[in-house]
Amino acid sequence: MSSHPPLLVIGSVAIDSITTPFGSRERSLGGSGTHFSVSASFFTEVGVVAVVGDDFTEDDAAVFRERRINTESVERIAGGKTFRWAGEYGFDLNTAKTLDTQLNVFADFKPRLSEAAKRTPFLFLGNIQPTLQREVREQVDARFVAMDTMNMWINDTRDELLKTIAVVDAMIINDAEARELAGEPNLIRAARKILGWGPQMLIVKRGEYGAAFFTRDSYFATPAFPLESVFDPTGAGDSFAGGFMGYLAHADKIDETTVRRAVIYGSVMASFNVEEFSCDRLRRLKPEEIRERFHQFKQFTHFEI
Ligand code: AMP
Predict the structure, then answer these.
(1) Which of 24, 181, 212, 238 has the least C-beta neighbours within 10 A?
(2) Tell me: the pLDDT tens digits for 229-246?
(3) Minimal-distance CA residue to ligand 1 atom 12
C-alpha cells in the first residue's frame, strides 16, 4: 500500500490576471489549490487534487516541485485550458472585484483519487464548485474536513453549497461571505446560523483586521500582522487556510489550544503571501521567518490582567 501525505486539498489551480493599485500581472500562477498547498507545505506533506490544461507550463509546475507538493492527483487535459480568473483591487485591498472567471478544464472535471489519497486524514475543500468539493469529500475517509467558498458559489449554486457545508467539520470564509451566506448582517448571528448547518467550527477571515474563530461555545480572535506594505492580496485566504490546516495536520490533533495556534500560523502565512505577487514571497520564505512572526503575534496580543 502506498502512503499519502496527511493533508489533501481540492481547489483551483489557476492562471490569474491581477490588477492592484501598485501594479498588474497578466499571467500569475494562482488558484485556491495552489496558494493553499504552497502555504501548507511549510508544515506538512500535502497533496493536490486539480486539473490543468496545456497552458500550464514547466515554470508553473516548478512551484509545486520546489515545495515537494504531491501532484499525483493533478490531471492534465491535452487540448484543454487551465482555469482562469481576472481580478482587480482598489485601495480597499480586502475586497477583490472579479472581472472574469473561466472554469475551462474544471467544467467537466471528475476527480479520481488513488486508494492512498482516499485515506488522507486532513482534507481541505478549497474554493471551487461545491459539487466538486462534495465529490471529493465523499471519496475521502478523513478525520477532519474544512472548506472555503466565495460569493460566486453562494449566489449561483446555493443549494449545492449547503449540502457541502452539511458534511464538513470546519468552514473558513471571509467576512462578507459569512454575512452573505447566512443572509445576516451581524457577524455573530451569522456565525451561529452557519454553525447550525453542521460544521463545529467557523473561521472568519477579516483581511487586514485579522481572523475570528467560532464554535458553539467558544470564541477566539486575532488581529492581522501589522504590515506596512500589502502588494497583492490574492491568495491571502488560501494561504491562511494552508497554514491553519498544515499546522493541524502536523500537530495531528484538534483541541482548542492547537486550533488557536493554527489560527495564528494561518495569519502568519497570509501576511507573507500578500507581500508580493502570486506565490513569489512564499517561494523564498524561510522557516525561521515563520517562527519569528509567530512569536511577534504572541507579543502583540498579550496583556496582563
Ligand atoms: P483568495 O485566497 O480568496 O484571495 O483566493 C484567490 C484565488 O482564488 C485566485 O488565485 C483565483 O485563481 C481563485 N479563484 C477566484 N475565483 C474562483 C472561483 N470561482 N473558483 C475557484 N477559484 C477561484
Answers:
(1) 24
(2) 899 999 999 999 999 999
(3) 31
